[in-house]
């Protein structure tokens, strides 16, 4: 009975890791063991690692789920890694309170070097590493939960070129200490590249995501100016391979051009007018005297004039809109002057706004500013640039100053 239970346990453990083949690790494979603590462990490299075109001879293994170069990462770093100013590679950067860390740095483990070389060669050019670093975070837990994360980081280098593997066989949690796990590459000068799902609740999907068609496995060349994806090396599609996961977010959708104000001229803006655009990509033809109605004949004549030299464009017909008559009231001379001063140039005493403003006072820029900075205005109201609530915009306001 005991034997059956042990075999069943072995099958279940094997099933949990069947999709992601980790590099062999553990004390039986020559690993050192670090019991969980709050401090990083230093490691001197026999062969240097090139990272962001810089050579490093020492690295630090952090219980937070990252390795750093020349400076350690500890529990005091709660902010985003791109703001810390430390060169680091993070497969899963998050606070944890339990688990074990296995690591080895070797130039003599032929099986590990051959395994890494084979995997790299399938996606990059042939590469023969002379040194490998392997770090495995096993069964990492967070405070107040029994869920566990297991993940692995492997570095292969020959002193000039360097490659990194990130492997995620089993992820059960993504948030710790009210922050989501981060993953990516970070240089002390501020350069950084984040992994997909980094800093989101979907981080647990990393075990079903890959950039080399192998669930839970990621591979990058890190010795260049920026980390290089093997899909770019092979000119393949730039999308991640993943299972049952939609990474598209509505926050990234481009604004719709249907939100733009209508342009009566469309693509046939007269030569004497000005076409302007805003940061949404909307365009509008603005003239000194915007018409209320644009006839097809006027548009045709405008198109012909744009194709011929020294031809006068006929004036566009305008629809005259009669203003409602405002009852005249006798106003003492002194109050009339005061009213003119308060209302400004838009309202001249008892007269409404000028529907046929002169081109010398109504410029394309002034009309453009009003049209593109507000909601869509009715065509017949384009020249009415009076402040809202002025005597010209409301007949009832003609007695406001009395």
TrEMBL record:
Pfam families noted in UniProt: NIDO
Compositional bias ranges of the Polar residues kind: 353-377
InterPro entries in the record: Epithelial_Barrier/Signaling (IPR051495), NIDO_dom (IPR003886)
Span list, region Disordered: 224-258, 296-402
UniProt KW keywords: Signal
Biased composition range(s): Low complexity: 296-305, 390-402
Region forming the signal peptide: 1-18
Sequence ranges assigned to domain NIDO in this UniProt record: 87-225
Biased composition (Acidic residues): 234-249
Biased composition (Basic and acidic residues): 312-321
Entries under PROSITE patterns matching the protein: NIDO
Biological process according to GO: cell-matrix adhesion
Record-linked PANTHER family: DENDRITE EXTENSION DEFECTIVE PROTEIN 1, MUCIN 4-RELATED
Protein name: NIDO domain-containing protein
Organism this protein belongs to: Steinernema carpocapsae (Entomopathogenic nematode)
Phylogenetic classification of the source organism: Eukaryota, Metazoa, Ecdysozoa, Nematoda, Chromadorea
